[in-house]
Amino acid sequence: SLFKRQSKLVGLLLPDITNPFFPELARGVEDELQKQDFRLLFGNSDENPEKEQAYIETFLQNQVVGIISATQTSGMFNQEQPAVPTVFLDRTHEGRYTVYADGREGGKIAARELVRRGSRNITVLKGPGHISPVQDRFLGAVEVLAASSVDFQVIQMASLTYEEAEERAKELFRQYPATDGILASNDMTAAAVLHEALRIGKAIPEEVQIIGFDDIPMSRLLFPSLSTIKQPVYEMGKQAAQLLLKLIKKEEVAEQIIQLPVSFVERNTTRKVK
Ligand code: RIB
Questions:
Q1: Class of 9-101+232-261 per CATH?
Q2: Ligand 1 pocket, 213 CB below 6 A?
Q3: Which residues of the chain have pLDDT under 70?
Q4: Nearest atom, ligand 1, residue 185 CA
């Protein structure tokens, strides 16, 4: 026939699959694509624009019919319209199809919960500012803290790797020994902070309360189990895949940006209140 057979391949670009947030996100994408017989190619960008670019080129050489990207470097996505339908997932790009969770609200909820449960000297571990979900949750938290009567300070992280989180956690307790509440950029960071707090003999949650962000499966398994802000991670992946499939099939889509809600999950790194 004159019709060119289209591939059923989709490229998925993630920042770093060693953060358990991303496998769950990928699983949501894959399960949904599978239902319509689409398959995935995948790569880690490591927040590196050259790696991102190289993957996009490889995806296109392999005739992907769409791309889902959870990355946000200064790479080609920011300059040009992608050559195939593209959906951004977790991270926002001005004017592009996006599925993400309400990080701003999440940051507010986390700050309110710490204050409500009695923390009076709060340290915010701030992730890299170019990562939009991380920046959103930071802005939300600071908005609430600045309007409250508690003391707070911010520690800036250059990356969200576990290694850096461990370093910053050590620094945190050296620099701010009176801190009694910590808002971490994500659950991986929170896990490193919890580990360090216990190592130096802090009672959790009596002396220090900690709230993470994401609700990765690991957060239930920590001891004490981690209170956190839950993102609907699997659902985010699923909805990104659904949106991409509509774009590939040139079906009408109702909204360019889909924002999903977040919620507080109370576990044992925060104190109980009535
Ligand atoms: O990319 C790092 C973080 O952004 C993840 O842990 C998750 O919080 C995401 O929104």
A1: alpha beta
A2: yes
A3: 1-4, 73-80
A4: 8
Residue 127: CA atoms inside 13 Å, Cβ hemisphere, count?
27
Which atom in ligand 1 lies closest to the alpha carbon of residue 216? 6
Nearest to 271 by CA among 227, 230, 229: 227
Q: What distances in angstroms separate CA 30 from CA 116, 123, 253, 259, one per listed residue?
A: 39, 37, 20, 20
Q: How many CB atoms lie within 10 A of CB 104?
A: 19
Strands 227-230 and 263-265: antiparallel
Please state the atom number of ligand 1 nearest to the C-alpha of residue 70.
1
Q: Where are the domains of the chain?
A: 9-101+232-261, 103-230
Identical fold between 9-101+232-261 and 103-230:
yes
- CATH superfamily of the domain spanning 103-230: Response regulator (3.40.50.2300)
**Per-residue exposure over 243-274, b if at least 16 CB sit within 10 Å of its own CB, e if not:** bbbbbbeeeeeeeeebbeebebbebebbbeee
Whether 19 contacts 186, CB under 8 Å: yes
- Show Cβ contacts of residue 209 under 8 Å, excluding neighbours closer than 6 positions: 114, 117, 118, 119, 180, 181, 182, 227, 269, 270, 271
Pocket test for ligand 1, best of 13, 19, 183 (most atoms within 8 A of CB): 19
Q: How far apart are CA 270 and CA 204, in angstroms?
A: 8
Q: Convert the pLDDT of each residue in 3-14 to its tens digit.
A: 567 889 999 999
- pLDDT for 234 equals 98
